């Protein structure tokens, strides 16, 4: 097998699955989130979207690669409840998953027959694998950035293939990101803008050793992407990409790190692994995800698998706050790591130095 053929079939299937799931989450957004009937505190649309997207991706993976394990964020326990609300949720998920699996998407993987309720629940539960160092497994975050999804901001459908603990393939759907990286991102909370714009929706693809690419939801042509070329000398011209939620990443520490590196540009805040994608195509230069508080939060593999490979293949280095590589072979979580620091290869070590200094100053040098 030549290197460019490696993971070819997996890539085709993963793109089609992520594309279908992205179309379905967009549909949920349009029909449920952006509809006037939703109250601000109503989280149910994201739940419908999470389950439907996981059902779609897992059904396709189960059919194409029946022996592969899946580590998915969601499980179907809630949908098996007899409570009427959950029964309603289950009916909606069944309908959306079947629509997503039976529509023609680039002539591939289209189901000719709809799935029964139990088949959909089983597909979702295929995501229950414990992870680990041996063999092939997929990891799926059906909607990463659930808060972004509800705000009409950025979210991503993220699928990675991990083989013997290493991410080999990453595919990420970002339905609300402009295809053109120079175009303005939709304003958060402006549901009408997201509904109206026809230039939104990107799929990112990376295979280990074979580069990073993007395509639109409608045109299958893959175009190469890369990080902005930045040297240690020009680090001051860089910008950060960080979480929207201060509970997920320490904004205060990031400001101090910017100061230490001489960076003055304001940080770009964005939900989800769209941060990895954004930096991968040169819109923002450094992705910082510093632990908050005592650093007890342990990151999940599905929150980083696809994004980290994309950024590495686009010319970057991804590590935790101490410069250790992310270890995807330890189960469902990144137990050996704390936080994430990602940047161009040429400046990554300098950023790690500044991170260590900032944490030391805060009395969090032990993290
Ligand atoms: N305390 C804490 N620290 C770090 N990370 C956390 C924390 N709590 C949750 N999560 C995970 O963050 C995922 C979303 O990450 P984002 O970078 O999109 O966060 S943010 O919404 O922009 O703040 C989110 O993924 P989704 O649940 O798929 O949205 C969570 O897995
Ligand atoms: Mg997530
Ligand atoms: Mg999620
Ligand atoms: Mg979640």
Automatic annotation (TrEMBL):
Q: Is Iron-sulfur tagged as a keyword?
A: no
Which domain of life does this protein belong to? Answer: Eukaryota
Q: Which InterPro entries does its entry note?
A: DPNP (IPR006239), Inositol_monoP_metal-BS (IPR020583), Inositol_monoP_superfamily (IPR051090), Inositol_monophosphatase-like (IPR000760), Inositol_monophosphatase_CS (IPR020550)
- Return the EC number: 3.1.3.7
Q: Which reaction does it catalyse?
A: adenosine 2',5'-bisphosphate + H2O = AMP + phosphate; 3'-phosphoadenylyl sulfate + H2O = adenosine 5'-phosphosulfate + phosphate; adenosine 3',5'-bisphosphate + H2O = AMP + phosphate
List positions binding Mg(2+): 73, 141, 143-144, 303
Per UniProt, what is one Pfam family of this protein?
Inositol_P
Q: Which UniProt keywords apply?
A: Hydrolase, Magnesium, Metal-binding
Q: Name one GO molecular function term.
A: metal ion binding
* Stretches of the chain forming a coiled coil according to its record: none
Q: Which cofactors does it use?
A: Mg(2+)
Query: From its record, what is one biological process in GO terms?
Result: sulfate assimilation
Enzyme class at the top of the EC tree = hydrolase
Kindly give the Gene3D superfamilies that the UniProt entry links to this protein. 3.40.190.80, Fructose-1,6-Bisphosphatase, subunit A, domain 1
Database matches in NCBIfam families: bisphos_HAL2
Q: Which PANTHER family match?
A: 3'(2'),5'-BISPHOSPHATE NUCLEOTIDASE, PHOSPHATASE
Entry's family note = Belongs to the inositol monophosphatase superfamily.
Know the name of this protein?
3'(2'),5'-bisphosphate nucleotidase
Source species: Acaromyces ingoldii
Lineage in the entry? Eukaryota, Fungi, Dikarya, Basidiomycota, Ustilaginomycotina
């Amino acid at each position: 097998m030549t290197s460019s053929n490696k993971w070819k079939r997996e890539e085709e299937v993963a793109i089609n699955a992520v594309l279908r799931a992205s179309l379905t989450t967009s549909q949920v957004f349009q029909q449920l989130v952006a509809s006037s009937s939703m109250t601000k505190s109503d989280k149910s649309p994201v739940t419908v979207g999470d389950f439907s997207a996981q059902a779609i991706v897992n059904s396709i993976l189960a059919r194409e690669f029946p022996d592969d394990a899946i580590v998915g964020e969601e499980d179907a326990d809630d949908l098996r409840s007899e409570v009427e609300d959950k029964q309603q949720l289950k009916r909606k998920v069944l309908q959306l998953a079947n629509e997503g699996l039976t529509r023609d998407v680039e002539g591939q993987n289209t189901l000719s027959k709809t799935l029964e309720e139990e088949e959909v629940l089983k597909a979702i539960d295929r995501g229950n694998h414990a992870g680990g160092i041996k063999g092939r497994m997929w990891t799926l975050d059906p909607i990463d950035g659930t808060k972004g999804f509800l705000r009409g901001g950025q979210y991503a459908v993220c699928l990675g293939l991990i083989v013997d603990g290493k991410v080999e393939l990453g595919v990420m759907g970002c339905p609300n990101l402009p295809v053109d990286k120079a175009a303005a991102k939709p304003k958060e909370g402006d549901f009408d803008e997201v509904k109206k714009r026809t230039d939104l929706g990107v799929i990112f693809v990376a295979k280990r050793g074979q580069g990073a690419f993007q395509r639109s939801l409608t045109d299958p042509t893959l175009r190469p992407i890369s990080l902005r070329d930045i040297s240690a000398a020009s680090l001051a011209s860089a910008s950060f990409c960080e979480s929207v939620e201060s509970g997920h990443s320490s904004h205060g520490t990031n400001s101090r790190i910017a100061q230490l590196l001489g960076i003055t540009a304001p940080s770009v805040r964005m939900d989800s692994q769209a941060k990895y994608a954004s930096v991968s195509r040169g819109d923002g230069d450094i992705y910082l995800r510093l632990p908050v508080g005592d650093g007890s939060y342990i990151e999940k593999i599905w929150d980083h698998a696809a994004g980290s490979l994309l950024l590495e293949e686009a010319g970057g280095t991804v590590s935790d706050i101490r410069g250790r590589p992310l270890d995807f072979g330890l189960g469902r979580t990144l137990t050996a790591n704390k936080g994430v620091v990602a940047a161009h290869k040429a400046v990554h070590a300098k950023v790690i130095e500044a991170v260590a200094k900032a944490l030391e100053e805060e009395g969090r040098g032990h993290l």
